Amino acid sequence: MTMGAPRKEIDYVELEKLVEMQATEVEIASFFDVTDKTLNARIKEQYNMTFSEYKTLKGGKGKISLRQMMWQSAKKGNTNMQIFLSKNMLGMADKQEIKTDEKKSVEITFVEDADD
């Protein structure tokens, strides 16, 4: 009887940390030195869900944590973070647009090539 390669186990605490950091399925599989198929099989065995379902369930924690750090940084006076959040959360912009109902005409002139 031939034996296959030894079973590769997944550290589920590390898995959750990697998912919280928004690592991709391929990156996480690489981290554990397994294929994406093996990663999915271990998640299915442990949690009875696919990687995608697991990431949807656990990935939000990382986003919340990052958002909280960004918010705290802005509150402490980090002007770069204040500007970033103002643009992304409040829709502010550096440019100023002036809208008008005034219609303007544009004239286009085609010049024939002298070599024709």
Q: Which blocks of ≥5 consecutive residues have pLDDT under 50? A: none
Question: What level of helicity do the residues show?
Answer: 55-70%
Strand-residue proportion: under 5%
Total number of helical segments?
5
Distance between the termini: 81 Å
Structural class: mainly alpha
Form type: elongated
Structural description of this entry:
This protein has 116 residues and is mostly helical. It has a domain of 78 residues. The termini are far apart.
Features:
mainly alpha; 5 helices; elongated
Give a topology summary:
Elements: H1 12-20, H2 25-31, H3 36-47, H4 51-75, H5 79-89
Short note summarizing the structure:
This protein is mainly alpha-helical. It has 5 helices and no strands.
